[in-house]
Amino acid sequence: MRLADFIDANVEPILSAAEAFAATMLPASSHMDAEALRDHMPMILVAVAKDLRSAQTSNEQLAKSLGQQPSIHGAPETAAQTHALLRAKAGFDISQLVAEYRALRASVLSLWFDSGKMGNAQTQDDLVRFNEAIDQAVAESVTYFTAEMDRWRHVFLGVLGHDLRGPLNAILLTAEVLSKMTTEAPLERHTVRLIQSGKRMKTLLDDLLDFSRASLGLGLSLHRAPVDLASVCTEEIELLRTALPDAEISFRSEGETAGSFDGSRVREALGNLVSNAARYGTKKTVIDVALVGDDHHMRLSVTNTGEPIPMENVQALFEPLRRARPLDELAESANLGLGLFIVREIAKAHGGEITVTSSGGTTVFSLMLPRLAVQ
């Protein structure tokens, strides 16, 4: 008997063994009935049997063995993918998920061997094809399981960041009230430090919320309005000069600088780029900020001197929670490594892009934004 036929004829004993094994996956399985324990295993078995019966070229076999099985765009989730999502929601961990497939594989093969109904000429081919099909199901499950766990992790971070803003705002308001009530120098110094630390924490929480929204595929929220970016950048540069007293920052603008933008987000992007230049660039050198407008776009560039960035590392700069080694370790201690990631998301939300060039000791980050909202 071919393995595909054996699976079709012995679905119930195979599923009984799978159910019994799933019941041992504690504590997640403790509240699950027989139907939930089996979940999509019946459909996975159907898919495996169908795969065993389908023709397969040597190239297709090689691609499958390398985990390169092509997915059909717009096709519904496979049984293995849906099984992974439900197991993630039930509280299984990834080791338990993979262990289910290991037990399913062992159950099918042991029952087949014990039956004495194996074929002869096609047995080896059936074994190879069966293991390929199970491995494919494992790969699909692990991919979807990981994505679902990441999604819930981002939801948790978003909720945490949102809920922490309430008590933090109360601390800031109390500190500001105390600072106005005292005229004694020692107390005033402490309240100023408390306010500055609270504002820094608020910035970190805002970054965390933006990261969570972007990671969930929601993008950053924008509030577009007619605005002159030259005025917006001038105001932000003045604040940055106060916040970064050791940095010399120059600013110039050319062309038409008015358009439809979220001025607050552009200021945030500019602040992150200049702070990044001050943190990683050569000390005591000028950070040059330039805003150039034409009929359709606005280009905001930040130029600093320092060690060139290897081209192979450029894309990694914009990945979340990735940081280069700063020249000032203390300045980096309160940084989540989300600055450039948020700059990229601000650019994308505006329908623009952020690019980097680095050579000859000069690094330029250029934020290109369309003057009008992209329809």
Topology of helices and strands:
Layout: H1 3-9, H2 11-22, H3 34-38, H4 41-53, H5 58-65, H6 79-90, H7 94-115, H8 123-181, H9 185-215, E1 225-228, H10 229-243, E2 248-254, E3 258-261, H11 263-280, E4 286-293, E5 297-305, H12 329-332, H13 339-349, E6 353-359, E7 362-370
Parallel strand pairs: 2-4
Antiparallel strand pairs: 1-3, 4-5, 5-7, 6-7
Helix pairs in contact: 1-4, 2-7, 4-8, 6-8, 7-8, 8-9, 9-13, 10-11, 11-13
Mean pLDDT over the full residue set: 83
Q: Give, in spatial order, the strands making up the sheet with the most strands.
A: 2-4-5-7-6
The oligomeric state is single chain
Q: What level of helicity do the residues show?
A: 55-70%
Structural class: alpha+beta
Which segments are poorly predicted (pLDDT under 50) over 5 or more consecutive residues?
Answer: 327-334
> Nearest-angstrom radius of gyration?
29 Å
Profile the largest sheet. 5 strands, mixed
- Helix and strand pattern: HHHHHHHHHEHEEHEEHHEE
Task: Give the strand content.
Answer: 5-15%
How far the N terminus sits from the C terminus, by CA atoms, comes to 61 Å
Number of helices: 13
Describe the global form.
Answer: elongated
Please tally the β strands and state the result. Answer: 7
